[in-house]
Amino acid sequence: MVWKIVLLVVMTWVIVGAFILPAPQQAIGEASRIFYFHVPQAWVAVVAFLVSMVASVRFLRNGNRLEDDRARVAAGLGLLFSLLATVSGSIFAKVTWQSYWNWDPRETSILILLLIYGAYFALRTAVTEPERQARLAAVYAIFAFVTVPFLMFVIPRVLPSLHPSDSIVDESGSFAMSLETSVVFFPSLAAFTGVFIWMYRLGRRVTTAERLRIEE
Amino acid sequence: MYTLEVLSLTKGFGPRQVLKDVSFSLTVGDSLAVIGKNGSGKTTLLRILAGLMIPTRGKAVFMHDSQKLDRAAIRQRLSYVGPELALYDALTAAENLRFFGKMRGISLDNELIVKITEMVGLSGRENDLYRAYSSGMKQRLKYAVALLNDPTYLLLDEPTANLDEEGRQVVSQIIARQKENGILIVATNEQEEYGFAEKQYRLDG
Amino acid sequence: MPKNSIGLTAKSWAVLRKDIQVEFRSRYALNAILLFGVTTLTVVSFSVGQKNLSGELYAALFWIIIFFSAMSGLAHVFVREEDAKTATVLRLTADTTAVYWGKLGFNFLLLSLLEAVITPLFLMMTDAILHHFFLLLIILFLGAVGLAGATTLIAAIISKASVKGALFAVLSFPILLPLLIGVINGTTKALTATGGVTQASSELQLLTSYAVVMITASLLLFEFVWEE
To answer: Which of A17, B60, B147, C200 registers the highest number of CB atoms within 10 A of its CB?
Structure first.
């Protein structure tokens, strides 16, 4: 209970701080404030994928339907956050570079993530038998996750990038965020992760209750 | 000694409960007729035993001298014939036999193919396409394929479906041989077929 | 019954040969895939034919044709087994890994045939100039391996769905994106004067590692899709 209040306070600070303190990237201007929201959203989308994948692996190994429920809940949240990240990124792109979409590697990656989540649920809808649905979805989640290293490391080397490269770590590799930026960014990262965990736990409570009802 | 132990096998499709706590145990020389009206789960039970479906609860344990058999070992020693199975339409009977023989780890030469087709009463028809076979002939070829690996466990769903008098005789012979050296499970709701097995297991109510 | 032990390789070949035999007698997947490819190519050539576009554009168009043709035919290898009800006997008798290798091989051959037909036609029907033949050959090969490697497992997945429709393309596209980026960039370099094998080393690395990773992952996951 306490941590929910803490979460509320931190999130409030993040929202206020994002607009009161100086914009993180002077070169880009006021629009760079979206950094405080967009990056944590993308981060959560990836974390959700990881959670979903791990639960899927567990499900294939032990056949416990609760694991499949976990995978499904996490994937649902992943879909939500990757949608948010794509939209916030697109808005930022329009304001800064005058075009909603540019095929910059990070843009591409978050779009692929969104498509993977969409495909995951399309698959689930297309398989009616519950046991089979869980297995096939688990296989797809794991298989799709395998492409993540390609998205994260290989594509950026092959596609030219528009993303500001010196927001977090600059060319020399040392930490490049100013104190003012850190003071909003890291709490934001924590707050968004907190929101994810909270929603995940709620989702799990629902699925666990449903499963108990099914088992009678 | 090969055995099969079925322990509380349960299968549900969503809200529909098809099998509930099915249990029995068999050893070489045993034959079991699984009886029940349409929809009572006979085919489902056989499919689970054949490894084609995963039960909701419970398990089927195949053992050889107190050693559990793994999936691959079960596959080698088990055959299943049922109405929903089909062989390759675009291939001849001989090609089907040769292919499934390969899958079973056996190389079949022409001589053997002739012998096998003779055994199921399909002499001279081995170079016809499976597509051209009547349903009775198809059933016989399915038996031929099922016997390629000399199965310890033979599962038959509606064994004499589509068969004429001669076909039924072929099946009787196959079943008689199986009862000597292996385990036989027959799923049926035909009174005449009850006699194929010594024991019975009812699936209704 | 004589029991010679037949190894995994031989069993995989047997599955592949069987699929080729069956396919040859009906030509269903082959027709679908070639017809789609040639039709799309004709449309492309008609609208873009003599306009002298950049290497990048030609590369993109080429792989759009290949991708969508692949989507129209690569699922067949599993869907046909399920529809014809032959999958059950295969499941009962065959080694799961042999089934995967055989089907993978079949899809690879299908793709290679598609590429062999479309590539020369494409070069003839558009103004694309092939500057680096050897590079294109490698890209086509790696592209076919990667495409087959990534989609064979997905084909197995959708063959068990009750509603297939566009599911194959929906599931395949996100997973294929790294491959598509690699082959399009690589083909661009084959179609422009300044390209060449050495210039395309990062693409070739990407494609090779992609193929290896996807096939390995498929091998590990296939049994969960195929059995039951």
So the answer is: C200
- Residue A2 in this model has a pLDDT that exceeds 90: no
Residues of C in contact with A108 (CB under 8 A): 177, 181
The model carries a pTM of 0.91
Any chains having at least 3 CB pairs less than 8 A from chain A are B, C
| Stretch (H or E) spanning B69 | none
Is residue B193 within a helix (H) or strand (E), and if so which, with residue range?
A: helix B191-194
Indicate which of B56, B78, B103 best probes the interface with C, i.e. most C CBs within 10 Å of its own CB.
B103
Give the model confidence (pLDDT) of C193-227 as tens digits: 887 788 888 889 999 999 999 999 999 999 999 98
- Please say if the pLDDT value at position A166 is more than 50: no
C8 touches chain B (CB under 8 A): no
Pair of tokens at residue B75: 């596959």
A63: which 2 tokens?
């056949």
Which of A116, A119, A157 lies at the smallest CB-CB distance from C202?
A157
Neighbours of chain C (3+ CB pairs under 8 A): A, B
Top CATH class, B2-202: alpha beta
Rounded to whole angstroms, what are the CA distances from B142 to B44, B71, B161, B164, B171? 19, 22, 12, 15, 11
Cβ–Cβ contact B10 with A under 8 A: no
Residues of A in contact with B14 (CB under 8 A): 129-130
Q: B touches which chains (3+ CB pairs under 8 A)?
A: A, C
d(CA A117, CA A114): 5
Rounded-to-integer distance, Cα A23 and Cα A180, Å: 9
pLDDT in tens, B62-90: 999 889 998 889 999 999 999 989 999 99
- Full 3-state SS string of chain A: CHHHHHHHHHHHHHHHHHHHCCCCCCCCCHHHHHHHHHHHHHHHHHHHHHHHHHHHHHHHHHCCHHHHHHHHHHHHHHHHHHHHHHHHHHHHHHHHHCCCCCCCHHHHHHHHHHHHHHHHHHHHHHCCCHHHHHHHHHHHHHHHHCCHHHHHHHHHHHCCCCCCCCCCECCCCCECCCHHHHHHHHHHHHHHHHHHHHHHHHHHHHHHHHHHHHHC
Please give the Cα distance from B133 to B141 (Å, whole number): 9
> What's the distance, CA A23 to chain centroid?
23
In angstroms, rounded to a whole number, what is the distance separating the alpha carbons of residues C187 and C135?
A: 8
C216 alpha carbon, distance to own chain's centre: 16
List of chain C residues whose C-beta atoms are within 8 Å of the C-beta of residue B71: 227
* Residue C86 touches partner B, C-beta closer than 8 Å: yes
Residue C226 at interface with chain A, using a CB cutoff of 8 Å? no
